[in-house]
Amino acid sequence: MTMPPFFERLDREEAVVRGELAALREKTAGLEERLARLVITRETALSLMGDQTVDAATGTTLATVPAGPAGSDAAARSGPLELELARERILVLLAGANQALKVQDIGEAIGESPDRVETTRARLKKMAAEGLVSEVSPAWFAITPAAHQARRQSTEEDGTA
Length: 161
Description:
The protein is of the alpha+beta class. Helices cover 60% and strands 14% of the residues. It has one domain (3-158): Winged helix-like DNA-binding domain superfamily/Winged helix DNA-binding domain (Arc Repressor Mutant, subunit A, Orthogonal Bundle), CATH 1.10.10. The strands form two sheets. A three-stranded antiparallel β-sheet has the order 3-5-4. A two-stranded antiparallel sheet has the order 1-2. The longest helix is centred in the first third of the chain and has 47 residues, at 3-49. The radius of gyration is 21 Å and the shape is elongated.
């Protein structure tokens, strides 16, 4: 191999990589803008529904207490959240967090009573067995890339992007 063709090939490869990086930067900027809109939408919806606690560092909702009859609160609920509602809230939370979260934080964020952490853990373990979430370390769960992609596609199809 002679030197000039080698450097020409390097130049072509460098140009390809630079083009891919530019495309990724553009996509990242678009995703960051979309994420900002989603965070604002979530904050607005939560403010209309009830009290909220948001982790300032991540923007993740840590606890939500739905507005209800006077004097009602989440701890006074007699039972766990309905299964499908809890699963949907877990997937939305983990998809928005883009990081693993502790079981206790997940339970609080979806509106589950703190004394029902084992219910939340069992739900997460079942979702892990189904491939929707993964347990990245004991008691820490994250959404799987496949589930995240499926959620994103269904959201785009619904027109809620």
